[in-house]
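Hi Y.,

Following your request, here is the sequence exactly as I used it, all 118 residues.
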Amino acid sequence: VQLQAYGGGSVLAGGSLRLSCVVSGNMNRFNSMWWYRQPPGKEREWVAVIRVGGSTAYDGSVWGRFTISRDIPENSVYLQMNSLKPEDSAVYYCCARKNANEGPDDVWGQGTQVTVSS
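Below is the corresponding structure, written out as tokens. Let me know if you'd prefer a different format.
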């Protein structure tokens, strides 16, 4: 299984981007699909998750601005990012997780760069 993330780019603060992550296989084999990001010089942090049952959760820093969704027949997960801020600048990664917690069985995409300028 491979994950291909795309859709990053450079935008001005207040703008929007939509990230996509395509799973080369049946996405329902995974317990959850995640978006993470790694800002320059910082640790990777989680952004949003959508679980197999459809429930979602967000980090507080993106609550109300970002929306995670999925298209099961297309084996794709999306991250709609609105009202972007410079602090949202990071490499964004999608992750497919089989287990309840992060672990070696996680499958990661290659990352897509998001740059927000003021």
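The CA atoms of residues 12 and 67 lie 19 Å apart.

Thanks again,
Q.
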